[in-house]
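Give me structure tokens for this 840-residue protein.
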Amino acid sequence: MAELLGGAAIGALMGETVKHAVQEIKNGRKFGPTLKTSEQTLNALAPLVEQIKVSNDSLGRPREDIQKLETHIGELKELVEKCKKLTRGNVLSFSRYQAKLKRKFEALEIHLSFIVQLENKIDLGKLLVMQKEISENMVRKNEILGQFNGNEIRGWCGAPDEPQCIGMDEPLSKLKKQLMKGGVSVLVLAGLGGSGKTNIAKKLCWDPQIKDKFRGNIFYVTVSKTHNLKNIVRTLFQHCQHGAPMFQSDEDAINRLGLLLKHVGTDSEGHVVPILLVLDDVWPESEELVEKFKFQMSDYKILVTSRVAFRRFGTPVKLDPLVHDHAVSLFQHYAQLNESSSYKPDRDLLDEIVKGCKGSPLALQVTAGSLCQQPFEKWQTMMERLKSQTILESNSTNLLSRLQQSLDILEDIKEKECFVDLGLFPEDQMIPVTVLIDMWATLYNLDEDGIQAMAIVHNLNTRNLISIISTRKVATEADMYYNNHYVVIHDLLRELANYQRKEESFDQRKRLIIDLHGDDRPDWWIGPNQHGMSSCMPSSVTRMWVKQKKLKVAAGILSISADETFSSGWCDMRPDEAKVLILNLRSDKYSLPDFTKKMSKLEVLIVTNYGFHCSELTKLELLGFLSNLKRIRLEKVSVEGLCKLNNLRKLSLHMCSTRNAFESCSIKISDAMPNLVELSIDYCKDLIKLPDGLCNITTLKKLSITNCHNLSAMPQDIKNLENLEVLRLCSCSDLKEMPESVEGLNKLRCLDISDCASLPKLPDDIGKLQKLEKLAMKGCSKLSELPNSVIKIGNLKHEMHVICDEEHVILWEHYRNIPYLSIDMHKEDINLNWLHRTRS
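Here you go.
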């Protein structure tokens, strides 16, 4: 319609152009300006005449209506060309030619007085052209869609039907705000399959303010996994009523699309018209496709919906699960719970079913649809099913298949396996990244420092399969210190991870998860009873039990969760192949199962107490039988003693009680763990001094004592740790002295004393640490001067970074000219995430 209105004004525009030219000639005092005005007028008339000709040609009509107009303009062109050839030697002829120009333009003006009749014909012609193009486009559309594979283009350009977006006001508002801003940009809306991304994108296309801004220049294309770029561009051309051209290549298609968008992005008066291109369902491997659709145009925006957060395009808008009230509203909408409903459930029943849907819009829609207009018995059955089964098992395959697509985008087998491993941990708990590093280094041959594991974590986060929480910003993150990083997985995705495991037969499972409550045991655990074999036991397990009298477990990972009601009646199983043992506890006292000493291949032990107080962990001596055990992590447990662990390489203690093990134990830590490479002690409030013999473990490379507020001093013989590369003493608020022998740590690369608020000074000869690359000292409020030896840093031949706060930057001002020295001021990152891990 905008084109039609523009065409209807052609005659008036031509008339005004000629009137302006005549007036300029009348007022002209010199021949030069007159000639210039004449030439400009002809140039302005040319495209208007062509527009009329195109309209007539499109309808197959003769050109009689514009022949006289073309004759007048042709004569004027000839006259102008003659005038342009006049030189200063023809100065006497200037006035004569100026008069000729005046007469010609006045004749053209008279001719244009009849243009109104022609305007009406143009309007009618435009309407007929539009009707003809619509008919032709419909034919082309049917022909082209007949050639497309169903996976190539599943949508059509233009705003689709307006959907419901109950409970999604926040992401809608964020995206709308960004779209209303000027400038070129790509916005990414990321979330799981079925989280509502497409509905939000469609809803935006119908928003009155968005429609008003983009004025019809809203293009919506569903990309999908197996897209075809040329077909996408053809779809855009069709929507703009420019046919469906054939392209020689993808590059040709993109180049011509750029010209098309620049055309539709400008109105008839040359003003910029904003453009919104929605690319729905973009897969990970299509990131480069989005880049190709970026053009340098004013106010041109691309909205991308994807299961992946494409961070190269800026911070994405991520869709979180719906809060309960919004979930209830959405459920009621799909269940059609209104006054005409044959049955309306009470609020308690409704709440229980909605909770079972885990805040997933897709799960809510599927479940509500199955209960729509159903009697009470159906609702009650669904509630009971959700309590005993997961939402994936209780509902249609639609929900599972949509979520499975989110997992299928992981092409790397290791990444898929790592995702499934997240189901080994209890629901609604933060999983320490260091736990994953310990596991994955063993299971998938990743590096022990955690760089590769962290890359996988970031990739899973980018694909919206997990979230990463950093409880505190640490200055030494570049040194692979991940003690403050945690992974959170949504309940629905945890069920998806465990669903992958359940698809395997019992004797082929890579992971075995055992949940123990009171005297309840899994069916396969029960074994023979007084009536013979358990009727619930799989036949393959029954055969193993009869033949071997002990249950053989082939899984490489064993995860056992036990609450305070567990009676410790262990099955005599044989987890011969297990390399990782995870124990999730909620009791005040717990003993390692007797079969632990038979786990000859065990390399990683992870014990986490999720209860309120420290759990007393007994039978630790069983670990002495395990020659392959390399990594142990204990959280919120009381360590009563040490045993010989000759091959242990890493020990991590988090929120543990260590006094009995370190101070009262008859065996020194250097004798118990002679080959230890890394020791991490975090939030152990009863740690007053480091265990005797620690400095005799010459294999130690990393020593991290963090958030241990009662630690007052470090051992004087610390220089014996000749291979120590990293020493972290973060947030040891009562630490009052650093031993001078630190200067003997010739391989020390990183020294972190951040937030050691009672430390008055650095060791005098700290400048002798010639391998030192990083010194973190923010928050050392009592440290008021630097030792003179820091000048020796000038002898270093490598980069040396000092991380401090604003107060201590002043201390380093005198040394800014030292080569290779950089001083970075730490910005405090204040959040309360750490409370989730430290409350007790």
